[in-house]
Fold this sequence. Notes:
This protein is mainly β. It has a domain at 97-287. Helices cover 0% and strands 44% of the residues. The protein contains no helices and 35 strands. It has strands spanning 6-13, 22-29, 41-43, 47-51, 57-62, 65-69, 73-77, 86-89, 98-101, 107-110, 115-118, 126-128, 130-131, 137-138, 161-164, 167-173, 186-190, 198-202, 231-238, 243-249, 252-253, 256-257, 259-267, 272-281, 289-295, 298-303, 318-321, 333-336, 345-348, 351-355, 366-370, 378-381, 388-394, 402-408, 412-421. The protein is globular.
Amino acid sequence: MEKNRIVNIVLILSALPFVGAIFIVVTQRSNAAPMSIASTDGETDHFWYRLAAAEPYIDSQRDNKAFGFSTEKIFLSEDNARTWAYSSEFPNAKNITFSCILKNGNILFATRTKLYLSSDNLKTYKQIIVQDRDGHDYLPHTPTDPNRPGWYFHSLDGIHTWDVQGKEMLVWGNYCNVLGGPVPINIYYSTDQGQTVKIAYAFGHNPSFHDRDAKTGAPLGNSDNPVICRHIHSVVYNPVENAFYACTGDHDRGNLQECHWLRGTYDGKKDSWKWKILVSVNSNSRYKSGGINFVDGQLYWASDANGNNGTLPHDRGIFRCDPADLTDPKKHTMLFNPKYESANMIIEDGVILSAHYAPASPYNTGFIISTDMGKTWAQYDLKQFGPRSPVRFHKKNSDGWFRVDLRSGWIERGEVLFIKPKP
């Protein structure tokens, strides 16, 4: 019947100064209501995509489960966000900045300054108080502006759990000091499905971003640590080495640098960490990066080098090397150069998916993809979504869809997009 007719419009733009063409497929059902976005679903040569509904906002996924929230409620789905079987009132839901679904079904989620855990499909939840490196309660600071308490737990990457020698570990770092107020920067971890959360590493006080506690006057951050950063871009585990890697941003602050790579090892028997700074550099470097992945023992990452310090053009690209060769750029292989800043990337089942940052790219909503582990590449601009920066890539759900945040401009929450690679 005419009302069910589907019209497909394909736009192919190839005369642009980068590798590959832009393919935009607009799929419109003639009986659908008019939309402000030209199309919420479609396909490219390499993947299908679809925009999630505005509410509940789908914050994380794992296998067939998804966790979401609205203004004052939290939700759990067991059928890949088609329906929401469980929900609970949560008055501060609009300020949720982080969530993770654990292997045993526990859900750890956070507002700007507080962590919560549900172990019964959201029927109940309890606050989790982080423990510092000495085993004391680690409490949020008193902000100068109560409306800007900072983002203590928000992450830029989307994978936070790993099987570490037969036991699931949750490890992540906070991407902060952009919106919401100044906070200290930490790497957090849990070895008991979120029941206990501790600090694995605490960066020092950064006077360019950190406030002081409005009540005590104490500087934020680890006063004993001279290593500073603005925020953490990525934390990931390499099972071959039994070691974690983390990278931070962003620039030089006087004689101090904020861009580092760290390597950490965890001793489960002693419940202790050992960390080593591998690299400290300025922002015009491939080490200003993120999207770290390990595949078959090899290290992959994407660079968002920027700034005018150092040699131009910027030292950017998507790279691979042996972990032991990280500090030697001569031993790196550049798999692809998207020419613009890119520091989010996920690799799963031979597919490498990365993206452009909208404020630093001519793309509106730009994606970078290889379906053969870096042998060939394509780039696409989903212009209909406007200026969006794709971040927080989650592993594919049980239906084969990656989940991606589309952030407005740089980091403000926008929409959620699902991407499914073509076979």
